[in-house]
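Hi,

Apologies if this is the wrong queue. I'm a grad student, and the batch job for Riboflavin biosynthesis protein from Anaerocolumna sedimenticola produced an output file that my downstream script rejects. I'm not sure whether the problem is my script or the file. Here is the sequence I used:
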Amino acid sequence: MEYITGRTDFKLHNSAVSLGKFDGIHRGHQLLLNKILEQKSKGYQAVMFTFMFHPNNLFSDKEIDTIYTEEEKRYLLEQSGLDVLVSYPFTEETASMEPEDFIKDVLINKLDARMIVVGSDFRFGHKRRGNVALLQSMSGTYGYELVVFDKMKLEDQVISSTYIRNELLEGHIEKANSMLGRPFSIIGEVQHGRKIGRTLGFPTTNLIPAEHKLLPPNGVYASITIINGKKYPGVTNIGFNPTVGTTPEPRVETYIIDFDSDLYGTTIEVCLYSLERREVKFHSLDELKAQMQKDITFGREYFAKVSY
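Support response: The file is valid. Your script probably expects a header line. Output copied below for reference.
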C-alpha cells in the first residue's frame, strides 16, 4: 500500500476514492472501503482519503484521543488490500478551501477520481458547505460516479466513532467491538518493561500506547495477541501497575497463554474482548501473584467458550 502523508504534491490516476475521517474504521466505514476495493477488478486504484490530523484539532487546544492512531490505521489498512492511503495535511489553507475547489483541485486534479464513495452526512470545504448534493451536481461536469451510503445502525443507534469512543471509555468492550466489526486493539512494538511479571512467573509483553490513543478503563481484559498473522489467547492489563510502583504512562501488558518466545522489537496487535476487572492496588506481591493466576484462568475459560 502506498502511503501519502503530509504533502499535497502528488498525482494519482484512475481512482475509486472513499472520503472521511475513518476513526475506528468501523462497520459503517467498512461499507465505503469494501466498495472501492470492489473497483480494483475494473482496473481502478482503491484510494482512501482522510486528513493527517483529526479536523477538530485545528481549532481546539484539546487534542482528541482517537480509536486508532495514524500508525495503527495504516497498519490495519495495509492488510485490507487498499492501494493508496492519502493522509492530507489539514491546515488553515485546507480548512478555507471552497468545496467546488476541493472537488476540482483535489478529487479531480490530484486523485483523478472516477468513483467517489461517501457517507450520506459527508461534509467538506469552507464552513462545511460541501455535501452530497454538491458532489452529485458536479458529477456530470467531471465525469465521476458518486456512491452514497446511509448511516449504519446497531439496535436503532447510528454507528459512529463518537458512540464507539463513549462505549470504550465505559469499558463496554463487547458493544464497541460489535460496532467496530472487529475487536478493538492496540498495535505497537514490544518494549522492554520492568520484567516484574517475569519475576512472578508470568512474563508479559509490554506496549506503550501513543499519547493520544484512546484506551478503555484501566483493568484486566481477555485478549488475543496477533503475532505475524497468528492469534494467541491471553489476558491484558491496561494501567499504571500501582502495586509495584506506578509507571509514568499507562502500559499495555499482555500474558500470552502457553507462549514463550522473545518478542522484543516485534510489532504485535493486542485485541481486547472482555473486561474482567478494574485495576486495583494489592497489599503484597503474593496477593498480586494469586490474582494474576485467577486472571489467566479467566482468559483460558473465556476463550474456551468464545470463538476467535
